[in-house]
Amino acid sequence: MRDILGAWLSILCVLHCSLPILLLSFSASFGLGELLESFHNDWLHAILIAPIVAILAVSIPKAYIAHRNPLPAYLAVSGVITLTAGVMAGHDIETFFTILGSGLVISSHLINRKTLKSRISAVASQI
């Protein structure tokens, strides 16, 4: 369940960065300029990154003990570093880093879940 929640939080990061770009073309005609600007406040980045890191910190080590596959941990750490770099880089390249980092985090959760399920199935079939 933690992997599903973590993947959805990462999808929110992608939406947070890509939605303003998609709405940019409509901002002048619909008066969305202030709304788009509010999407990129620094406090919002912290609110989005904090639960992602917290879920990864709980989910990945616990699952690694069960399945011993280091790939989800490598992807998770790379994703968090990339997300953090995106926040620090500023608006010019932030979208690229956020989408890349979120993709890495989503991949880590999905691989972690798949590996954990296959491990549980293997143990269950031995019983």
Automatic annotation (TrEMBL):
GO terms for molecular function: mercury ion transmembrane transporter activity. Keywords: Membrane, Transmembrane, Transmembrane helix. It comes from the Bacteria. One of its GO terms (cellular component) is membrane. The keyword Oxidoreductase does not apply. Pfam families: MerC. The chain crosses the membrane at residues 43-64, 71-89, 95-111. This is MerC domain-containing protein. It comes from Psychrosphaera ytuae.
